[in-house]
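Example record

One chain of 140 residues, shown exactly as stored in the release files.
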Amino acid sequence: MILLLSDNEKRATLLQNDLKREGFDLHIYTDLGKALLDLSQDDAWELIMLDCEFTQQEAFKICQKLKNNPDTRLIPLICILGKEQIVDQILVFEAGADDFILMPYSTPEIQLKVRSIQRMIELQNTIRQKDAQLENLKDV
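Predicted structure tokens for this chain:
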């Protein structure tokens, strides 16, 4: 499941529709406090998308909070930025974002980025499973 933090209803709906066509389940949160609470209680999120206009002054703090929190630090984080925000691109990477999408985006671009991250997540899960199998074999 994908979590989108955005209070831009039009952008959120557009993203949801574009990703839904590819079979992705996107949940939109407009309340940051509720989102952060749910993040710490739910292991189901595979990807977090943060609309950096969501809380303009707070976007970088949110990135840092997510990446410093043991419950969310390993969840890939994609930030959504305006094309003219070149400094913000650097700042979101410095704050811990894994990738970014520039607005306006193309539908194939966002679908490909999410599929790519999904493959990375699947590979990480496979590695974890193999590591667990190796640990079990050591005990035998």
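Notes: The longest strand covers residues 77-82.
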